[in-house]
Every structure is written in C-alpha cells, then in structure tokens.
Amino acid sequence: MLNGVDLPARRALAEQIREDSWEAQLSIGVQAHPEPGARCRVDTEPMRLGSTRVARSFSVHQSRGTGAADASPSCLDPVGSLLVALGASVADSVAASLTGEGCHLTLLKVLPVVETGGDGGRSRLSYALHIEGEVSPEEARRAALAARERSSGHRTLEEPNEIRVVVQTARDEHLTARPVPADPAPFTGALRRAAEVAWEVGAHVIAEVDGVRVESDQPKQLFGADLAPNAQEYVLSALAAEALRFAAPADADGATGAAGVASGASAGAGDGGPAAADAVHASGRIDLRGPYSAQDAQVGLRNILVQLLPADPSAGDGSAAAAMRGWLTEGHALRLVRDAHPIHVELVLNGTPIAR
C-alpha cells in the first residue's frame, strides 16, 4: 500500500455509508479519573460504529492544568491534547489525499499552534503543514484543502460547538455551554503553545508537546493499526481532564481540594478503604460521511456531552454544579472546542513555502 493508506478499503467504506447512514455514525467516549497530584487518567471506551462495537483500551495520562506551566513533564495537559488532535487529524486527511493522487511521501509534519490573548479569554489557532516527497504544488494545495474540508480535528476546532453538561446528583443538573461570538477587536497574542505532529505511516503519528511524546492512530475499522487513541479521543480527553480539574481540584500533595470533598470525593476513607473520587465522562459523535465521503455531512465532532459523576451523588449542596459552572466560564480547552476559531494554514512543500 502506498504510504500505508488502504485506498480500496476507504472507498468501500465511503460507498457503504452512502447507502446506509446509520453505519456512518461513530460514537466515542472516554472517562477521566483523578490520580495523585494534579493529574488524571483518561480511559478510552469501546466505540460504536453503526451496529459494530469497536474495542478501545487506551489510557491517556493528563495534567488537569491548562497550560505549559501546569503540565507534568510526563503527560499532556488539556490544551496540549487538543493540539495533538488537530495535528493527527490533519495528517490523516493529508496522507489520504496525497495517496489518492499517487504521491509518494517522504515526510509529513503538522505544526499546530495556539495563541492566547492577554485577557486570557480569546485564542487563535494555526498550523504549518510541511510536505516532502514526489508531490507537485497543485497536489499539495489540494491536500491542504482536503484537510480544511474533511479533517474532523480541523472542523471541530474551527466551527462552533454547543457542549452539554450533566451533573449526576440526586437531582441531575443540566447545563449548556453555548458558543460565544467572536470579539471584533484586534487580537494580540500573549502566550504561545506549539506542537509537532510527525506522520509515520497510514493514520499513525508521533506528537510532541512541551517535551511530552505521545502517539495517535485510528482503529483498524478506520484503516489504522490500532496503536493509540485517535484524534477525537484526544479532544474528549482534553474536555474530561479539564472538567475534572474544576470538579475535584488537587493540591501539590495530591489531596483532593475543597470542591472534591464537598461533592463526596473523600467518601470511603473513614473505613480504611481507598477514597472514592469524582469522575468525568465525555462523549461525542461523528458522521463519517463527512470525513470519508464527498457527501454534504458535518465533519467535526458533534453531540458533545460531558457528565460529572460525583463520588457521592446523593450530596445536594450544589457544589458539584457550581464547579461545572466555573468550568464553563473559565475552561481554556472548553473555549477552544466551544467557540469558532478560523484556522490559518501555512503550506511548505519540500522546504519551500507555497501560496495556497
């Protein structure tokens, strides 16, 4: 297979989902659990591809902070996870497009960047797309356009998303994070975060953010080697980890902070057993007719739902819902997914920038 991309299988899937829209629906979920310090473990759950169950058994270890200063030297933070998701998804789309053109790739790198304004509220996204190999400028331009139109990571972060939140207590609280219109004032970046996402083969990439190296890949049902979480799982991991930071903050020694205790995070400690802890579940859906066929269907992650699962769901003091309202106001990763962010793309072919 050229570039490790199975074009006949991709075309067969495109034909199948054109005929049966139910088989195009991919449901994805993850669940975040606190770990000592300001860290958490996010476990992927089995996907549902139409009527098919797709096993997924990966764990993403994350800092619950939202910036490079908060990140652990051994794991991503939520914003870093979003940069990985963007780069991995774009690389997958570009590799498939160039393979369809019959191009042999020797190098493909995506360099995603997020800049945050001085007010901490607004952000700007971009990426540089570096392509090397037997590729013409026109083929490179078409690949960049394919990524803009058919990359689920690009479209998820470029388009607005309504995010629903449920706090599962004795009386469930339902909250909604609605997109905020763009501020027309000039943007001045104060903080810059960058990642490097290097394509290996097929849908497999190796990414580095702030010195942390991680992998991303698709399941075999989506033409990957099933080596690591995919881009959408990294998006959901970012949201789950950041929400958990607000629901169950931890101090430097790993003790659960006041919000976690109030919502029952210390339950069970009195009898000598391990302390119970809050968890956060995040899920979403993709219509594969968007990224995998030419049909007019949404491409990005949709129906995003974040559920706070308090350790003591009978607690009725309102602290869990208050913590989630704080996340909806202050969460950086949440704002990146919720609000529209026009993404600037720079294209470099065989070391030479080319106009798109």
TrEMBL record:
Gene3D superfamilies: 3.30.300.20. Residues 257-266 have a biased composition (Low complexity). Residues 257-276 are annotated as: Disordered. It comes from the Bacteria. This is OsmC family peroxiredoxin. It comes from Streptomyces venezuelae (strain ATCC 10712 / CBS 650.69 / DSM 40230 / JCM 4526 / NBRC 13096 / PD 04745).
